[in-house]
Amino acid sequence: MLNKILLATAALQAHVLAQSCPSLTAQYPAPSVASDYEARLVAQNLDKPRGLIFDNNNNLLVVEREVGVTAFKVEGAGSCVTLKDKKTVVSDGTLNHGIELSEDGKTLYASSRESVLKYNYDSTKLSVSDNGQVIVKGMTTDGQVTRTLLLSRKSKNTLLVSRGSDENIDLSTVDVNSGQSQIRIFDPSKNDISYTTGTTLGWGLRNAVGLAENPTDGGIWSAENNADNIERDGFSIHENNPAEELNYHGKLEDAKNSLLDANYGYPLCYGAWNISEISSAGQLQIGDQFAIAEENATRQDAFCNDARQKPRLVFQPHTSPIDIKFDTKGENLYVSLRGSWNRNDPVGYSVSVISFSANGEPTKPSSSTTALTPIFSNSNTTACPGNCFRPAGLAWDRNGRLYVSSDATGEIYVITKSGGDALDATRPKASAASKSPVSGVVGVVVAALAMAFAYLL
């Protein structure tokens, strides 16, 4: 009798959980998830969602292109998440990617191709009280239009703004005064600052869309999207070169930071991925920089490796890293790879992770081709980029769950460990108010089980 009751109760609990957990279905082959992980589609029909961030009340803020900044209330436990009560916080269709919040949660930052703006934000009302003040201006280009924002938690009152090139290979960026292909440092308490007056953290960065600060040591990292249609000595090496790059920029609080104002090579130098396809490669190794000058390219390779800052890691060309986020201990760096658009064999289209050691460095050497471990990716990329998941923004909630936007499909997913356990277990726990609606139903099941035991006794 007892076994029958236990089996019946277990079956009832599983049925209740399956019926109660919200379920959305993608209109393309479902992405695959690595073992020990779960992923669930939690929002659809958004307008090209890019940057994500959680406010101090655990509401999710989303930059939707051609809309502005929208907000969702988040309910649920584990991977059983519901995004509800969508509300437009900032109605401005020019906002297209970057988003940040002050540590006290009262100032919201967002970016367009021209400007960085700040707003007085109320997380209880999910609203702003003004039309926004321009902090940084003068960034309009026709090429790369995203302006990634990073508000340092280690160096107070410090805002980083990443701006890409105006062309695929933009020769104007050999001049630091162009203000393009750079990361610059600003004081967010000031207004109406021209981008070119900011302090240069790094330049020679074609499009460093991903920006992150290691929470343990304050090290700044960027993920760079490299150039397309590259040639060397008149031969196309586009399919497997140049590499996408993970670059290190030192610590903002370090007065002796030797990487301040460092040049990372673009548009003259590029990271090597497939050495066999680079003509006259000589002694080049994976992760080294090579030149693409029309004459004497090999003679310039030494310049690229001696006078330019090499990447700390390289990724497969055309994978297009968009966002990077550390976990609380700085042990893992999560990367969204939006994927290729002009490669014969599509690559990318995944959320992957890079392992970091206690000294704030990746565990893999700079010559590694296996630094990225996919945890959530398209099971079949043959339909990409037209009919597949294309990850963009990443954000942690206070429960240690990782959210990822897919701009091309207008969706948001949540990623957890198996069983709905936190991906980042060291984050502060949510308040009791955020319990899943499923938990109450499970409580009824548990109560039924208790009654059954009482009856038997």
Structural write-up:
- The chain is mainly beta and 457 residues long.
- The protein has one domain: 6 Propeller (Neuraminidase), CATH 2.120.10.30.
- Helices cover 11% and strands 35% of the residues.
- It is built from three helices and 32 strands.
- The strands form eight sheets. Strands 7, 8, 9, 10, 11 and 15 form a six-stranded mixed sheet that branches.
- A hairpin with a 4-residue loop joins strand 9 and strand 10.
- Helix 1 runs antiparallel to helix 3.
- The longest helix is centred in the C-terminal third of the chain and has 20 residues.
- It starts with a helix and ends with a helix.
- The N terminus and C terminus are likely disordered.
Coarse shape: globular
Return the domain count.
1
Radius of gyration: 24 Å
Mean pLDDT: 90
* Name of the level-1 CATH class: Mainly Beta
Biggest pleated sheet: 6 strands, mixed
Q: Looking at this structure, what is the CATH superfamily?
A: TolB, C-terminal domain
Number of strands: 32
Query: What is the second-level CATH architecture?
Result: 6 Propeller
Domain Pyrroloquinoline quinone-dependent pyranose dehydrogenase beta-propeller: 31-417
Pfam families: TrAA12 (PF22807)
Signal peptide: 1-18
Protein name: Soluble quino protein glucose dehydrogenase
